Each structure stands twice: as structure tokens, then as C-alpha cells.
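Intended use. Records like the one below are meant for learning the mapping from a protein sequence to its folded structure. Do not use them to infer anything beyond what is encoded.
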Amino acid sequence: MTARHVPPSRHVLPSPHVSPSRNVGPSRRLRPVAALAVAAALALGGCAASPEADGGQDGGRDAGQSASKRSGPAPQVKPGTAYVPEPVTSKMAGGFLVLVNAGDEDDRLVSVTSDLSDDVQLHRTVDNRMEQVDSMKVPAGGELALTRGGNHLMFMGLTRTPAEGDRVSLELRFEKSDPITLDVPVEAKNHAPHSHS
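Structure written out for the chain above:
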């Protein structure tokens, strides 16, 4: 069998970030546009972009990576801690919960998806200022608390305005563990959960 030479497409420009043997699909060509849109949204939203919530290594996961990379127990949501307060505007809402990691291996919360928004962001609060981060550490033998005034979820561009008593679905995605799916209650605007120890 002889190899046949196939001329490169005239519509695809070579990129210094992609090897010549790989095809450059639409998602690669749109990344600069998407990055510009995210930067503009952050500037308008008053949040500064920061790679992570604890200054460690980047916890992002490529779409092709497998989720189950843990040998011990995966992080779990502490019962009674997950809720979304009824939002005060129709444009955004906060989300709160506590993740417990009983294992001996750190993990990272890398993204959240929801039926409430196509843009769920991880935020940390530093000096009374919110910053969007790419991931948050769930320490071995410890917990990650997403609470009012601290680290939290932000639902941007709401698909609906939930009212107290409604439910919101969430999927938490991790660097090493399988995703966790939750059905979270919408509580009163001023809801303050009881301390769970």
C-alpha cells in the first residue's frame, strides 16, 4: 500500500501551539474569542481572575482526562450544608455547601454545572473582594467550606429566577474523583444554616 499525499486545507492556518499532524478544529480557533469574552465578563462583574483558591498548582482537568484517579474515599457534601439563597436580582445567585475529604489524598473542585445557569463560577473572597478562581483545594482529612462571606459558587446569567422552596440541580466536578450530583434547596434570602460539626 502506498501513502498518498493529501494537501493541507487552505482554510486552516497553522498554529504554533498545535503540532502539524493535528487538525485545528473550531474549538481551538474560537479560544481567543472565548478568552476575550471571559475577560470582559470579569471586568464588568468586578471580580479579578485568579488561577486557584489556594495558590497551588493548576487543578484544571482536560476534557480527555478520566475523573476516577483516587484510591481512597472521594469528597462528600456535608449533610444540611448545601443551599442556594433566593437571589436578590434576576441576573445572579450564590451557592453554598461544605465538602468533606475523609481520604488521605488532596483533591480539587474544578467546575460546577447547573440547570440554574450555564456559567457557574468558583469564587474566593479576599479582603472583602471576590475573585474568580479555576479550582479550589479539598484537603486530605479536611474540608472545603463554601459559605457566605468566604469561598462560594456564583451562578451568572440565570436561566430562571428561583424562589424559596424551589430546587436547583448541581454537578460538582473534581480533579481526581467522580462527579457528585446534588438536588439543592432554595432557601430564604437571609438563610443562615446551623453549624454542623
